[in-house]
Amino acid sequence: MLFKKIILVFIFAFSSAILFSQKDSTAVKDVKVKGRFTKNKKGVYNPLAPSKAAFYSAIFPGMGQIYNRKYWKAPIVWGAIGTSIYYYLDSNSEYKRYRRAYKLRKQGLQDEFTLDNGTEIASLATLERAQEQLKENRDMSLLSATILYVLQIVEASVNAHLLQFNTDDNLTFKPTLVQDPIQFDAPKVGLTIKYTF
User: Fold this and answer.
1) Which of 22, 73, 163, 175 is 20 to 30 A from 82, comparing alpha carbons?
2) So which residues are the signal peptide here (predicted)?
């Protein structure tokens, strides 16, 4: 039992030494480049870019995507949120129409679903079911518009974070075809890993 505890202490000590020996890549002295980004030894880095992108997206949907220079994403955001808002407004107006007819019918007055001769096109139960369905559709459209609004803010922020990653060829994964000198007829597929410090 004592031997297991000693091994556990050594593993903890070695793993914590490895964790504390890493350098912070953002602690390198920064130099201004064109006012928007800062350049350090590792490359271009702007710590405020994700928060700016999220702020712009919160003010006006799609502006965070434009700030990140992903112009093609802005019409997708506008279309998605606009479609949800359209269906919300349409369901809300239809709900009010059926609600008004239901209230008039309950009071014994003529509504738009009653003909002049007193024949009812839609029964009271039908008006009630239509109200419930339209209210549910309206609420789902509002919920989807809200979710899309929040998602586009998160997407702009995450995209601004990911734009700052160093993606040079020092670390690459490339599938390659390797010819076997003994068997020429069957090429072999391999994976080359290149990692430089």
Assistant:
1) 163
2) 1-20
